[in-house]
Amino acid sequence: MKTTYSLLLIIFTSVSVYGQSVTIRFDNKPSYVNVSKAALKYNKDFALSFTYDDGLASPVDFCYAIQNGGTAKDGINYPGLFYTDGCGNDIPFTSALAYYSLASNLVDLHSGLHSKYFSWNQLVDIYNGGWDALNHQYSGKGQAGIAEVIDNDSYTFTQTSALGTPINLTHFVVPAGQSGWITPAINAGIKSIHNESDGLDGHNFNIGGCLHCSTEGSLGFQVDTVTKVKEFLLTRENRDYRDSYPEMTNYIDQIAAKSINGDKFWFSEFTHGVGVGGTGGAFDWDDMKSYLQYLESTYGRSGSDRIIYASVQEIWEYLHMRIKTNITSSLNDNLLTIDLDTSNCDKDLRRYHLTLLIDSDEDFSVVSWNGIENYSARTSGNEKILNLFINSSVHHNLITGVNKKSNLKLVKKIYIYI
User: How far apart are CA 86 and CA 43, in angstroms?
Assistant: First the structure.
């Protein structure tokens, strides 16, 4: 009886802290109010994700600087590339690095002794700048298996914890399109898996890249209708020395053109390194720079501001939050209280963000919030929105306690028993 009683106490305590709320005050009592979840973060029309594979240093040396702002390896100081949160706040273009930690001879490639690869210090810096880190196996020539997935996560956690920023790898990029990785990654607790083609090991991937683009509707993944993202598989488009600007804008222009009337799409691309001329799996720096600047000037802050340019992890996390979060609202005169229940959301997300659409004939102001770290709002006009940044530490602490673990398999076991 004592054991059962203690378990019930844990369950009740866990549920109670998952509730978040925000109260807004309308200028006058509205004649109608409708609160709904935006299909994409910041209520954007379409999403573009770009991943840099194999842990090379050049994306940090070049792309991080132009996207987030700073001096790139070409010696030029860039102001940064941005879209907005729909409320007037600039958000930099962010990407992800997919990497293995060790070479085939088990030497740490990111110790700082190998200039071709980014260092752990650089990874922590760009992670703190909003970029994400993705699992790409533990060693460069590793055999497909659950150990290669878990060990890369554990080793990364150890190295980055020593630098004050523990990083977990919860999303996986299949190495070189090789077979045998999907089942081990899923068994390790990986949330989404990304590959350059469909049909790997008999699995049907959602089309995030450009497969059979001559077929209408096959370009990009439609997110507004998705209702499940568990064990999520997404294709992605390869970019290398064979691609050039401006021809490469064709795909994203097609995505933008069909992301209308509530239809919202997600396009995923990847390359390896960037550099002058571009060789092998690398992409020419001048073409990459022009492509990024085109995206910002056409669809970002300096253009129509319709795009969210963020990593596959960030887009997946938002979709997960949108699907798993329950919202209710109650109106009392001109005060509207919105309650959120995030108890069904995974407990190891990096971001717990949600964008709400406030459809009403009255403007509003935010007067109080609970369990929310921060928010931004567009409080007037025809498209009023409320971006909520929910306290992630509550979810993390409930699952892993004081001694947080990186091991994906261990985390999955904890989920089962909670």
Answer: 7
